[in-house]
């Protein structure tokens, strides 16, 4: 089963599915409402990351519950969507970027399922290369880029953006971590479609607003949904993917 964790602009996917039902999934970290869809005769599990109405801020999202809920309904591959600011002029607003690495600047989030034993999961390749290749075949995407995750909910300062650029960052957002590493700890393939909504602070000449983010996402909604539909159509199960064996050699 394919899991989709949707940010802004993806909620419409439930209305265009061949069938849709909702299921409340219990996890050790709380209950999550998951939409079970059928698209191209494939089962899809969809979670709106910020809940209906975009009501949960990024630093309050129950990332562990979301990932475990998808695992509990049988998901083996996850595609996430993330709205981001760009620090790279080659990744202009409106672009879809598939990242290949990240920098974590979050501060107060629980980042692991393993709080009672020692587990060191490898993240040499944090985003699944198999899913990256499928996304590459499914639409107009930019492959590669370093995603910088900040705590939020405020936007970043120009000085912070300057620092992130010096460290090699290309994109900045508030939701990609710990989602990506929690999926790795559960042995689930994970990749992201980063929707560039604006240039980051100090690069953009405008004051940053959430309206700007929603405007670009709304403008690109059709293209984003088309990319996701093509991904679903092209997706294949990859039982031998290294992502599924991420805990091999990780536990002490």
UniProtKB/TrEMBL annotation:
Pathway: Purine metabolism; purine nucleoside salvage. It catalyses: S-methyl-5'-thioinosine + phosphate = 5-(methylsulfanyl)-alpha-D-ribose 1-phosphate + hypoxanthine. The keyword 4Fe-4S does not apply. Keywords: Glycosyltransferase, Purine salvage, Transferase. It is an enzyme of class 2 (transferase). NCBIfam families: MTAP, PRK09136.1. Catalyzes the reversible phosphorylation of S-methyl-5'-thioinosine (MTI) to hypoxanthine and 5-methylthioribose-1-phosphate. Involved in the breakdown of S-methyl-5'-thioadenosine (MTA), a major by-product of polyamine biosynthesis. Catabolism of (MTA) occurs via deamination to MTI and phosphorolysis to hypoxanthine. This is Probable S-methyl-5'-thioinosine phosphorylase.
């Amino acid at each position: 089963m394919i899991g989709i964790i949707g940010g802004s602009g993806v909620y419409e996917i439930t209305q265009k599915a061949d069938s849709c039902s909702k299921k409340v999934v219990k996890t050790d970290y709380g209950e999550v409402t998951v939409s079970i869809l059928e698209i191209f005769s494939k089962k899809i599990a969809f979670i709106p990351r910020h809940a209906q109405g975009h009501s949960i801020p990024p630093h309050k999202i129950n990332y562990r519950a979301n990932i475990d809920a998808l695992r509990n309904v049988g998901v083996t591959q996850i595609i996430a969507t993330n709205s981001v600011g760009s620090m790279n002029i080659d990744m202009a607003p409106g672009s879809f970027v598939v990242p290949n690495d990240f920098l974590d600047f979050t501060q107060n989030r629980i980042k692991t399922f393993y709080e009672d034993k020692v587990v060191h999961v490898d993240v040499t390749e944090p985003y699944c290369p198999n899913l990256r290749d499928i996304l590459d075949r499914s639409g107009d995407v930019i492959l590669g880029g370093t995603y910088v995750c900040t705590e939020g909910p405020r936007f970043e300062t120009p000085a912070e953006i300057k620092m992130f650029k010096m460290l090699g960052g290309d994109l900045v957002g508030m939701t990609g971590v710990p989602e990506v590493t929690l999926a790795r700890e559960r042995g689930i393939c994970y990749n992201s479609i980063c929707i560039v909504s604006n240039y980051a602070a100090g690069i953009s000449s405008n004051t940053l607003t959430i309206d700007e983010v929603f405007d670009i996402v709304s403008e690109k909604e059709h293209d984003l949904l088309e990319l996701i539909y093509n991904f679903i159509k092209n997706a294949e199960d990859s039982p031998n993917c290294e992502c599924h064996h991420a805990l091999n050699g990780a536990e002490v």
